[in-house]
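Reopening this ticket.

The earlier resolution said the output was attached, but the attachment link was broken on my side. Pasting everything inline this time so it's all in one place.
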Amino acid sequence: MDSFTIKDLENISGIKAHTIRIWEQRYQFLKPKRTETNIRFYNNEELKTLLTVALLNKYGFKISLLDKMSAEELDKKIQSLTQLEAQQERIVNELVDCMIQVDLERLEAILEGYIRSKGIERTITQIIFPFMEKIGILWITNHINPAQEHLVSNIIRQKLIVGIDSVASEVKINKSVLLFLPEGEFHELGVLFVSYLLKCKGVSTIYLGANVPLRDVEYLVNLKKPSYIYSHLSSVAQSFNFDKFLLSITKKFEGTPIILSGLLTNTYEKKIPSQITFKKTLAEVMEFVATL
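Inline output:
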């Protein structure tokens, strides 16, 4: 993929579109092209440059100074950042570039290097999840080629599963959570991450995976009687009806608290059944896990 909207740049970089437009007017490092209808679009290199400039600006470098630097000079500057958070964000940005360039060998090498250095747990929390948050909006809006998404998702999925399998919590909590994704939902990374967090906490998990019919969930809920039911909704099929889904799970799983997270929960504006709780941010998800 080599075409991003200004909204894509905002979502990935965290820099408001208004600020990006101002930078374009004042500086030379961004030179978007325009469609026949006069809509800005940016290529891979411009996205990479924006991520680099935004990170360096965040850690004290003036935009006017950065604007005069070559790509090589910018790269040297960003490699010189010593703050831990800056280094982590730099690595996340490198993963974004790997995904866009479909450079899977480099992407996996970066992850493996961080795992060797920091361990799987820190890799998941410091690198993988921030990366997922940064590019997730592109996946659900189809602004990334499906081939890119599938290839990268499979690599990250493998790392998450390794992380889940390696957890050996010394604390055991007498609670269980059944995790599933409904029919039409195949984006498994979010719910895998929640499964990882729960296992670290010592909570027993019943993991059903993606694209699960509600009748199968109902069977296991009746059999295992979990303390909670958890689902993460990112990008379901067009035929998916959220209202109908909420009504169905409320009826089928009466008496069992249901937790829903994911981007779809951020766009739902109607009244939520009392049995269901939305966790709209990572902080809210982490808080839920911490309070179990």
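Reporter confirms the inline version is readable. Residues 120-140 form the longest helix (21 residues). The two ends are 42 Å apart (CA to CA).
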